[in-house]
Write a structure and sequence with these properties.
By secondary structure, this protein is of the alpha/beta class. It has 3 domains: 154 residues, Spo0b-associated Gtp-binding Protein, Chain: A; 168 residues, P-loop containing nucleotide triphosphate hydrolases (Rossmann fold, 3-Layer(aba) Sandwich), CATH 3.40.50; 79 residues, GTP-binding protein OBG, C-terminal domain (GMP Synthetase, Chain A, domain 3, 2-Layer Sandwich). Helices cover 20% and strands 23% of the residues. The N and C termini lie far apart (63 Å).
Length: 423
């Protein structure tokens, strides 16, 4: 079954907690703290699997989680890092954050992409020893791993896309110019899923052609099957518009041509601007006057026109050679750029809930919403630190610290960040 959409939940591993331990050894008095750090949580990694061509594997399994990091131990032993969770998807899959609609990754290349990072392990108590705090009896907990609900959309990678009304001969064309074996019959919507075929032009030269299921008028608004598969045309470098020039089903070929252009433009302006060749099929059923009128109209509009009879492979060779020549002048298949995360406006965030705890003079601040903010903060950038300071003030973190009794010079720890409090 061809499935090109799926929604799954991914969760990176939590970092392991730091250990509270003290060195015990014969003849060694007051060995001091030696609690180790917790292990890093595993990442959720997406990788391309060239053997997959559908998202059907995600019909039943929709939750994926990486392993948590192990807690630290004594003798300054760090916990074991959690194992990554690798999710394999077909090439051409786009991964979106389902809550915000932000594009996280375009899985068109060969490199794996980390989409949910595992949490860092917490510090053991060995990190908190100071001349005035020689026996710290606390450690940092591990940081939770990132979690997302992601939407997967498969957009097939093809050089040439065949578009046109149902039953005009697109499946027949791809079957005679490639090794693809689509279902062919004399009724509408015979092809219910996109079909890919490799078209070989000369030795060492080939391109990928996609037969997109029949688009009809209103497809961009959800009519017929076309709206389900118009997204697969977006990556194509070249379109071949197949038209039944004979009007064998009582339709006007030029009106059909204009209707398909309208649907492409309504779905995406970029689709209407893609280079296009026009193939007039079923010429054996058309009169000379019909063929000439359609050919003259296409050339008047500036399109390269190729008459053919796909069922007997007549006229298909010039079309294929023209496709190869045109592709040689076009840029490679389009890849979508992931969108950067936008940080919330510090001045309009409003009060947020945080938990402040105190251990041996260190004030620990925790709040799950802070993790999102901290991901965008850079300690080596002055403006980034200014933003972080505004967030702490606007959300009530500074007030919560004061209520907990923080004083000038006290140490404040917010997950990975530690600083001295200044009034």
């Amino acid at each position: 079954m061809f499935i090109d959409k799926a929604i799954v939940q991914i969760k990176a591993g939590d970092g392991g907690d730091g250990a509270v331990a003290f060195h015990r050894e014969k003849f060694v008095a007051s060995g001091g703290p030696d609690g180790g750090d917790g292990g890093r949580g595993g990442n959720v990694v997406f990788a391309v699997d060239t053997g997959m061509n559908t998202l059907s594997d995600f019909r039943y399994k929709r939750k994926f989680a990486a392993q948590n990091g192990a807690p630290g131990g004594g003798l300054r032993c760090n916990g074991k890092a959690g194992e990554d969770c690798v999710i394999r998807v077909p090439r051409g899959t786009l991964v979106y954050d389902d809550e915000t609609g932000r594009l996280l990754a375009d899985m068109s290349g060969d490199q794996p992409v980390v989409l949910a990072k595992g949490g860092r392990g917490g510090w053991g108590n060995v990190h908190f020893a100071t001349p005035t705090r020689q026996t710290p009896r606390f450690a940092k907990p591990g940081i939770p791993g990132e979690r997302y609900t992601v939407r997967l959309e498969l957009k097939l990678l093809a050089d040439v896309g065949l578009v046109g009304f149902p039953n005009v001969g697109k499946s027949t064309l791809i079957s005679v110019v490639s090794e693809a074996k689509p279902q062919i019959a004399n009724y509408h919507f015979t092809t219910r899923t996109p079909v890919l075929g490799v078209v070989r032009v000369d030795e060492g030269a080939s391109f990928v052609m996609a037969d997109i299921p029949g688009i009809i008028e209103g497809a961009s608004d959800g009519v017929g099957l076309g709206h389900e598969f118009l997204r697969h045309v977006e990556r194509c470098r070249l379109l071949v518009h197949v038209v039944d020039v004979s009007g064998s089903e009582g339709r006007d070929p030029i009106a059909d041509f204009d209707a398909i252009l309208h649907e492409l433009r309504t779905f995406s302006e970029r689709l209407a601007e893609l280079p296009m060749l026009v193939a007039g099929n079923k010429c054996d059923l058309a009169t000379d006057e019909q063929q000439q009128a359609f050919a003259d109209e296409m050339r008047r509009r500036g399109y390269d026109y190729f008459p053919m009879m796909a069922a007997i492979a007549h006229g298909t060779d010039p079309l294929i050679k023209a496709c190869a020549a045109k592709l040689a002048t076009l840029p490679p298949i389009r890849e979508f750029e992931p969108e950067a995360a936008t940080l919330p406006d510090a001045d309009t965030m409003g009060k947020r809930t945080v938990t402040v705890t105190r251990h041996d003079g260190v004030f620990f601040v925790e709040g799950e919403w802070l993790l999102t903010v901290l991901r965008g903060v850079r300690t080596d950038d002055y403006e980034s630190l200014q933003y972080f300071e505004r967030v702490l003030s606007a959300t009530g973190v500074i007030d919560a610290l004061r209520d907990a009794g923080v004083a000038e010079g006290d140490t404040v720890s917010i997950y990975n960040y530690e600083f001295e409090f200044i009034n």
